[in-house]
Amino acid sequence: MKNFNLTKCLVASAVAGGLSLAPNGAQAAVSSNDLAIIGADLTAKNGSEFFSWIALNDIAAGEVLYFTDSSYKSGGFEVKEGLFEYTVQAGGISAGTVIKVDNFNPPSGYTSPLNSAYHLNASIDFTTSGDQLLIFQDNDISDTAGFTALWAVNLNTDNWTFPGPESGQSWSELYPGLTEGVNALALGLGDQTGDDSEGARFVLPDSYGGNFVGTADELRALIQNEANWEKLAETSTSGGFNESADWVIEGIGNVTIIPEPSSTSLLFLGALGCLLRRKRS
């Protein structure tokens, strides 16, 4: 019988688990894989405006997220509008948590900071001729040089191309660091001026029966698919559309995120296998 080398087996288990044998470093900040925007209602038919987002992975307490409807053009924020700052509360945000934000009466912890280079108004106030929404992080909001875009939606047209000489708060180019169709969705009704949607929300496909149980990657792929989004035509604000104040969250139902196996658990299972093999050898 061949000799069993326990050390080699453990090293192979560590590599398979994606672990470095060096000491662990600090945890990374929030990434675009950790969250997604899942709804925005620009109509103000219920006396306010709303947007919604979801945590796809656990987000640690103390992380600071910013939300803005300021547009980005020609390498900078051309039209500065509203801004919310949110510091994740004690205990963090669990994967699968859906958050609805009322622009005119925001939840506890959402504030409009002073002396920010990102906004002119105190808080976000959507325009019904199309608008955009960005989630980002920045260690210093007194200037816009160091921001990290995480996720964005654009309700003006079905693309992120700025229409030539026009300007205004309704239009935005793609925020740097984002990829269209991945973490930046263009949810307008067409590619021309006037093709804006008055609202858009992610709707879980019928096959899920109103409840999602799966991995973050699976849910992210569903959110990235524009076919799973419902959009409001501009006539909705003057027509008979009677969306509720919860419209931006009603499409997703109940969410249970199944965590992927961690590197630590993979290492443990690998080490257990090594010990069992050693016992049998």
From TrEMBL:
The entry's keywords: Signal
Pfam families according to UniProt: PEP-CTERM (PF07589)
Domain of life: Bacteria
All copies of domain Ice-binding protein C-terminal, residue ranges: 258-280
InterPro entries in the cross-refs: Ice-binding_C
Keyword flag DNA-binding: no
Leader sequence residues: 1-28
Protein name per UniProt: PEP-CTERM protein-sorting domain-containing protein
Species in which this protein is naturally found: Rubritalea squalenifaciens DSM 18772
